[in-house]
Structures are given as structure tokens and as C-alpha cells.
Amino acid sequence: MTRLGVNIDHVATVREARKIDEPDPVHALVIAESAGADGITVHLRGDRRHMQERDIRIMAQICKTRLNIEMAPTQEMFRIACEIKPYSVTFVPERREEVTTEGGLDVLLHSKTLKPLIQDYHDQDIHISIFVDPSNEQIKACARLGVEIIELNTGRYADAKGEEQHILELEKLRNAARYAHKTGLRVAAGHGLNLRNVGPVAAIPEVEELNIGHSLIGRAIFVGLKEAINEMKEKMK
Ligand code: PXP
Fold first, then answer.
1. Contact residues of ligand 1, CB 6 A cut-off
2. How many C-beta neighbours within 10 Å does residue 120 have?
3. What is the CATH code for 3-236?
4. Whether the predicted pLDDT of 74 surpasses 80
5. For 98-145, how does the pLDDT look when each residue is reduced to its tens digit (9 = 90+)?
6. Which atom of ligand 1 is nearest to the CA of 193?
7. Would you say 12 and 50 are in contact if contact means Cβ atoms under 8 Å apart?
């Protein structure tokens, strides 16, 4: 079955709205894992708008599944990752003004700077994933850089208006997943997935893992995190 990586950033978003110490995302990690999360994802942003270094330091010590940290491919983040040693780091593009990650990383454009950085991560035994749009050119560039995992951006699929657009975006994801798998990459996917749209993406055979955050934490407000994760896992089946 497709694994569910639970992104708990938005527990920290609520905490940071008051700049106090609760709700604690570390608590969310413990509940998520006990509810069957197959992995935990957090995004350490340059502006620290939700997760703080303190959070991910504790998480790395207590995580029983796989801790995946989304980060910009910068030296600052590399130094933090070296200290924390998560299972994997997912490179994401980052703009300070954005509300959330807006698209995949342009791997073709940044290949030269990414190559030595990926080697540095591999020397630290940290798996590297890259968040990319479902484009064969981008996927080919990831394979050339020697990363193990790509995470396909499902944002356009999630935002698609109308049946025709929806089918088109889903087809792009299916083709990209097939292509990536053929080039030897492991395939994850995520962004904007919820109970209504997760089924067809979870059914793509090459997609091993989905990373889902906003809809899960939003739903957890009403039914609790454990139940929100159960519902999502049911839909993914
Ligand atoms: N994958 C990546 C690379 C992301 O940046 C995000 C958002 O932090 C997610 C998955 C989860 O997206 P959402 O919160 O829309 O489920």
C-alpha cells in the first residue's frame, strides 16, 4: 500500500500565531505515528514561520518512522541537516512572500549548484528527494544528479478546475511517475491532496508515498488527528 507521510507544519503554524509553546508539533508527531503515519514531514523554512530548529531536533530523536525535512537547497540548511540527520531531505524552492510551496524546483536551471550539494548530503548518509513538477525534462535532470527519490508536485492536479483539466493533470502525474520509475527513481507525490482528490493519485502504481499536510491538520480540528489519519489511509486504499 502507498505510504502516508504526514506533514505536521500547520500544528506549528497555530502555535506561531501566538508565539507560545502550544500546540506542540512534537506532540503531533507522537500521535501521528501511533495512528499509523508511515513517515513525518516538516518544512524548515528560512523565515522559520512554522517549524523551529528546536522542533526538528526533538523530532529527530524520537521519530520511530522516517523523518523527512523539506528544505531549500542552501548551505545554511545543509549545516542544520548534518546535525539533525533526518532519514531524508526534500529540496523545495522557497520564496519568502509565498503562502506555501508554489511549484517544483527547477532542477535544470540549478543543476550545477545542486550536484555538489547532493554529494555532500550523500556523504552524510541522508537520502535526497527533489520536489518537481511532472515534467520528463525535470525528472531526467534529477536522475542525472543521482538523487534516489522525486516528489511529484500534485498542486496543479489539486487546483484543476473542471473534469477535463482534472483528467489532464492526472494523466501528467501518471506519465511522470511511470517515466521516473523507469529511470530508476523512487516516486513520492504531494501538495494539495485531500479526502476528495487523493484516490486517483494513491492508485498510481509507481507512487510509493504521499505527503499530506494541510487537509489532514484542518480535518484534525474537527475529528482529531488520529481519526483524520485513519480516514486518509482508508481513502488511499
Ligand atoms: N510536499 C511538499 C514538497 C510541500 O512543500 C508540501 C507543503 O508543505 C506538501 C507536500 C504538503 O502539502 P499540503 O499541505 O498541501 O498537503
1. 7, 9, 43, 70, 90, 92, 100-101, 131, 151, 190-193, 211-215
2. 15
3. 3.20.20.70
4. yes
5. 777 779 999 999 999 999 999 999 999 999 999 999 999 999 999 999
6. 16
7. yes
